[in-house]
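Quick start: what a row looks like.
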Amino acid sequence: MSSPIQAAAPAGPVPRTGRAAGFFKTVRRFKVFYVMMLPAILILVFNNYVPMLGVLIAFKNINYTDGFIHSPWNGLNNFKFLFDTAVAWEITRNTLAYNVVFIAMNLIMGVALAIMFSEMRSKWAAKFHQSTMFLPYLLSWVVIGYLVFSFLGAEHGLLNTWLFPKLGWDPVEWYTESKYWPYILPIVNTWRNVGYFAVIYLASMLGVDPEYYEAALIDGATKRQQIMQITIPLIRPVIIVMTLLQIGRIFYADFGLFFQVTQNAGALYPTTQVIDTYVYQTFLVMGDIGMSSAAGLFQALVGFLLVLGTNLVIRRISKEDALF
């Protein structure tokens, strides 16, 4: 007589029909929630996924006679033209270098400001400073471009007409000297965006249990030790997420920053021209949407791969801190 263990049938994979039945049973059970999800799902599909068919433009020689569908295929010629240009290395270098600096400054300055805001004893003062730092993020680059011009203008700029004469310095032609802009652009970008990052990091700090600080204070921890051993480790997941989101757009440049703030001055191109402004000036002005689509697809693909790679590295170091 066989034992019950031997008589028991081995557990095999669930048949596909069983999986399908289980899926439809789940749908029937939670049909109200699926109906509630339907509008959001439709918006997501039609707004985010259906337009992705447009990536075909990057591989076609678009003409308006044949239309988008029937235009002849162009292979990789659109990509080849983008990278065969004399300034391909220059615009790629500028885009990457500026974004690396922007990410680092937004991270360091954002966390530092958030910590300072959280340490303010006066709630009114803290809210005032938060609003003041966040305000530039709401301004358009056109407005910011004119604000920068009011400081750097050759004839009427505040620096050349007021500050430099008092210091005995000669006026500077800011919009014809490209060597200054690798310092000006990070300052302007940080001034505009740091308030946004500070608010996000401050919100994550508010979720830290105050008992951690009370216990550290009893143990004699200094304020610096509390920040380094409690605050930063506990907001590390938020820092990683925000950094990954920025890494995903590392091949994108803020068009308004590099076009409006620099006044699109040709003399500054060696240090201010990036992929986005080059695409606008070269391809969109000529009306060649195939080449501009190729550049956009290249930026999105590289950003996607960088996010995956960075997240993989984070997962190897600390699985709990990985985004996915």
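That is the whole record. The domain at 88-321 is CATH 1.10.3720.10 (MetI-like fold). The CA atoms of residues 248 and 303 lie 4 Å apart.
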